[in-house]
Specification:
The structure is a single chain. By secondary structure, this protein is mainly beta. It has one domain. The chain is built from one helix and ten strands; from the N terminus they run E-E-E-E-E-E-E-H-E-E-E. The longest helix is centred in the middle third of the chain and has 14 residues. The two termini are about 30 Å apart.
Amino acid sequence: MQVGCLGDVIFEVNSARICTVSGVRFSREARYEEHQVQGAEPRPEFLAPGLGAGSLTMLLRRDLGTEPLAEVEKVRRMLTRGEVARLIIAEKNLGKWTVRGMSEDWRHVLKGLTGPLAVALTIELTEYF
């Protein structure tokens, strides 16, 4: 069963593959301009809402049917090409996002394997309009 996606990165759970997000975080700030006033405190002026930011945390495990480095490469390609991707989680369309950063933590690297058994991946996102 597909539980969501970020572009080509599919979050799913079935008998052959488990690839899900383990942590989702979103934040948003307002944009203000501060006007300097001589002899008094600055006067803030609300401009507009800022772009949303988010992060997804995933544990990609080979023993659960996911090829960790293949999924990491999909995210890396999105980052290096500046691709805009739709984010869907639990059937909720969260709009368009760009990958602004990523970090990968290789776990259980063994001799004779073509890659790690597991990768903890964190994806940093920025909302796109």
